[in-house]
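User: quick one, sequence for these tokens?
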């Protein structure tokens, strides 16, 4: 391509950057990290260095945010970048970025980022004399001034729409692609899905070295964004669809298939109930998952709260996720049975997150819980109750949520207590409710009946992997100082080897 290009075809409005000396990227890695949470894991390191990548998707999928974050994260690392916008005004982009916690103006003043907003005069478009020579000339100047190595072109389909014929679109598309290659730019272009110029848009997918698809679908009245890498020349990548969340800090992806099974921390953790410890040969296995099932009023929240309070008294941290009631309601109800959770909250040992399952989809819930786990670093996690997770959209969504949360807890060595509400008639037959009973390490069922107008509760340990446990029913009471378990109700051996 000739370096002398006619500039009368386009007028441009660009935020004037401050002067800066070149700051080349150290070394010569084959990939450039995007800095976007989870995306580099999916791409096995980042976007192809010095090549063109494409993000395609429908409205609201997150294309613009992903492209802008690519430029923003690079600028924060000292790698200058250019963002070209054909649909949104530069000032609106800055406002939208501010809502995500990104302050672009200081980076622009430092010469680390610039936003170019082309102004395309109608007279040249209507006359058919329009080409992208002016755009490329302006980009030449900014690339040289910033020593930029990253560039994002948002809504490239808007640019292609300016050309009347298929041949013109092909010619200008190749000119843009060639210029990006010639400049050794790590480029990211965004493109709408299902546009009328489908052939030209498809052509861009063939030219690009890395192609990603974003979509925003609705299932069970819950909106979900997902990303899938279609191709990546010269590199492997994770080819499944991955949940994509727009958080208060930008885009985040959670590669499910990259989750590790986790590490096992040896030893036992006391349950907070002396008799239950003896029935479990010392307590729960540390970093295991325990599922406690029972009908309303059986004592699930009490047994979990007693465990949490005992852990806090040992200076361990507990994260309590409550899908059923508010923080005040939980602390008040447990205070009535002698469990002072509020003091543990005030001491910073216990953190309670109370939220409604239907307030967000699985991905949003998981992202914020992962953040809470990473920041609070709990030794133990309680989820009360998992039956409420069905309200996140479907039973499949609930299963997905619980398995991925469990996998994350195992990777961090966190002991996990799941509570599940069952019906009185099926407490022992449907303890998990969402099909995860085979994945947990210990199963405890709480049952209750009312013989002769008397309310009786009893407990049965169905399994406890890796340790001996009681196989008998044990009656218990909820007193004014928590749960008290009586001796075994049935005759026979109370200690037997647990199954696998």
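Assistant:
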């Amino acid at each position: 391509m000739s370096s002398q290009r006619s500039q009368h075809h386009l007028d441009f409005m660009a935020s004037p950057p401050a002067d800066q000396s070149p700051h080349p990227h150290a070394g010569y890695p084959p990939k450039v990290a995007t800095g976007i949470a989870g995306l580099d894991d999916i791409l096995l390191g980042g976007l192809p260095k010095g090549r063109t990548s494409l993000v395609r998707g429908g409205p609201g999928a997150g294309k613009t945010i992903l492209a802008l974050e690519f430029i923003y994260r690079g600028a924060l690392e000292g790698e200058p970048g250019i963002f070209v916008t054909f649909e949104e005004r530069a000032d609106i982009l800055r406002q939208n970025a501010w809502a995500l916690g990104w302050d672009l103006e200081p980076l622009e003043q430092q010469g680390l980022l610039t936003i170019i907003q082309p102004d395309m005069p109608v007279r040249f478009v209507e006359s058919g004399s329009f080409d992208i020579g002016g755009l490329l000339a302006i980009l030449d100047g900014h690339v040289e001034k910033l020593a930029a190595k990253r560039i994002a072109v948002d809504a490239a389909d808007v640019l292609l729409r300016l050309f009347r014929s298929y041949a013109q679109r092909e010619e200008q598309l190749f000119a843009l692609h060639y210029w990006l290659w010639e400049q050794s730019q790590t480029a990211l272009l965004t493109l709408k899905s299902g546009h009328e110029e489908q052939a030209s848009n498809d052509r861009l997918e063939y030219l690009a070295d890395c192609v990603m698809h974003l979509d925003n679908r609705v299932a069970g009245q819950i909106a979900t964004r997902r990303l899938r890498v279609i191709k990546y020349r010269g590199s492997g990548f994770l080819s499944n669809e991955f949940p994509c969340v727009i958080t208060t800090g930008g885009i985040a992806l959670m590669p499910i298939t990259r989750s590790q099974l986790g590490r096992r921390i040896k030893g036992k953790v006391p349950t907070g109930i002396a008799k239950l410890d003896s029935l479990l040969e010392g307590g729960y296995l540390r970093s295991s998952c325990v599922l406690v099932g029972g009908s309303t009023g059986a004592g699930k929240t009490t047994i979990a709260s007693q465990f949490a309070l005992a852990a806090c008294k040992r200076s361990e941290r507990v994260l309590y996720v409550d899908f059923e009631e508010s923080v005040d309601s939980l602390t008040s109800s447990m205070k009535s049975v002698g469990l002072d959770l509020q003091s543990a909250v005030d001491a910073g040992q216990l953190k309670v997150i109370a939220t409604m399952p239907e307030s967000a989809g699985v991905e949003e819930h998981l992202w914020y819980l992962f953040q809470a786990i990473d920041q609070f670093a709990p030794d133990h996690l309680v989820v009360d109750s998992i039956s409420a997770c069905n309200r996140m959209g479907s039973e499949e969504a609930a299963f997905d949520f619980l398995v991925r949360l469990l996998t994350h807890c195992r990777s961090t060595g966190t002991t996990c207590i799941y509570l599940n509400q069952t019906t009185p008639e099926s407490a022992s037959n449907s303890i998990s409710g969402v099909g995860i009973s085979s994945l947990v390490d210990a199963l405890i069922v709480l049952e209750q009946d009312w013989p002769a107008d008397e309310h009786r509760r009893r407990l049965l340990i169905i399994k406890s992997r890796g340790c001996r446990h009681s196989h008998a029913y044990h009656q218990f009471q909820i007193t004014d100082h928590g749960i008290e378990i009586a001796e075994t109700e049935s005759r026979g051996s109370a200690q037997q080897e647990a199954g696998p």
